[in-house]
Structure formats: structure tokens, C-alpha cells
Fold:
Amino acid sequence: MDEPTFLTDTRAGYNTIAIPYDEMFGAETDTKPLTRAMFNAFAEIVAENGPVIEVGSGPGRVTAYLDGLGLDIRGIDLSPEMVALARRNFPKLRFEEGTMTALDLADGTLAGLVAWYSIIHVPPALLPEVFAEFRRVLAPGGHLLLGFQVGDEAMHRTEAFGLTFSLVFQRLMPERIEELLAEAGFVVDARLVRQPDEGEKVAQAHLLAHKPA
Ligand SMILES: C[S@@+](CC[C@H](N)C(=O)[O-])C[C@H]1O[C@@H](n2cnc3c(N)ncnc32)[C@H](O)[C@@H]1O
Structure:
């Protein structure tokens, strides 16, 4: 079956910007205490329950942070350049190519799944399918952590870091994502919406949910 265009385009875009993206955002976890609070809570809840994946792991910083908190975590990313970079950045960790739209995992096998600023690249009409896929791979009682920019616009970037590329990403309303999660069979446990930091244009949302046992 032919791959949907949005996957091909997103892969190409991140292949182009992988290295400067990492230089700009690689240390972000160190500077955002509210984000760390959500990661820390997620790690505490999921700890020792089983394997965890980060889908859309990019340069690997979030996977590495959660690994440092003791999770059995690996990263999956659409972009082979991002996967190569993450492996170089964190040679002891596991990163593989793949797509969150069709995870190469058996049903009910994960204790946790993190999608940190990666569902933003899925067309909103396809989010129900992606959340169904997340629910499929999580074990009963497994937890989901999402991060995204707040809003309702589709953005199209064609230039950054002195490079030309094409990347579409979506700002998302937390209330709508919560509705879609509920429709997919998740229970939403917490929502954190923080005001934009320096360098950010809009508020940022972090959602924690679980698949009922
Ligand atoms: C904004 S970056 C975030 C990277 C990382 N989570 C972080 O916070 O540093 C989005 C990443 O998601 C990946 N991605 C986008 N769509 C994806 C998909 N369908 N499946 C897996 N990864 C995807 C991109 O290749 C990119 O590396």
C-alpha cells in the first residue's frame, strides 16, 4: 500500500533539519521545570510496570531523560536521520525507525507511551486512528503522555536554520484532544497548560491519560 503523503513529507522535512533541530532543542528538558514535572510524574507512575516507548523521539532527549529516571524506554521515529542522530547522541539507548500510525508491537505490551510534540504532524482527522493504535499497544492500566502546542491552526514551515523544507504541524486544543482520547477509550488523569516561555509563540499542553485496567 502506498504511504500517505503526510508521512513521506514529514520524514523528508525532519531528515533535512535533524542536526540544527537538535542543536536548538536538544537541551530543552533542562530549562523547563513544568515539563520536567510531567515527565517525573509519568516516570513515577509507570516505573517498573514494563516497557515504554517514545513515538517521535527525534534526537532522543526525552527518551534519554526518562531512561535517566529508570524507565525501560526506547525511541521510535519516522525519520532515519533523526534515528541516526539519537543513536549518536545516546549510544547506550535504543532507537528505531517506525511510525506511530502502525506500530510494530503486539497488543497490550507497553506500560507507557510518550508522544512529545509528534502527534502535531498527524492530520487531525486521523488522530482517532492514532489514539486507537496507542490504546492497542498499551497494556490495561498503561499510561500515555502527550505534549503539543495549544491552538487550532495548521502551520506550514518552509524555512528555518537557513534550510528549505516543508513541514506541516498542527496546534491542538487540549479539550478536543481529551474528547478524542475519551472516545478512544482512555481516561484523562491530568492536563497541564503552561504559558509560552521565551522563544515560544503559544501556550503548551501536556496531557496524562491511561487505558483502564
Ligand atoms: C517536534 S519533533 C519532537 C522530537 C522529540 N519528541 C523531542 O521532543 O525532542 C517531532 C518528531 O516526531 C517525528 N514524527 C513525526 N511523525 C511521526 C510518525 N508518524 N511516527 C513517528 N515519528 C514521527 C519526527 O520525525 C520528529 O523527529
User: Anything to note?
Assistant: The beta strands are 52-55, 73-77, 95-97, 110-116, 138-149, 154-160, 163-170, 187-194, 204-210. Residues 5-210 form a domain with the Rossmann fold fold (CATH 3.40.50.150). The pocket of S-adenosylmethionine is lined by residues 7, 10, 14, 25, 55-59, 61-62, 76-79, 82, 99-101, 116-118, 121 (CB under 6 Å).
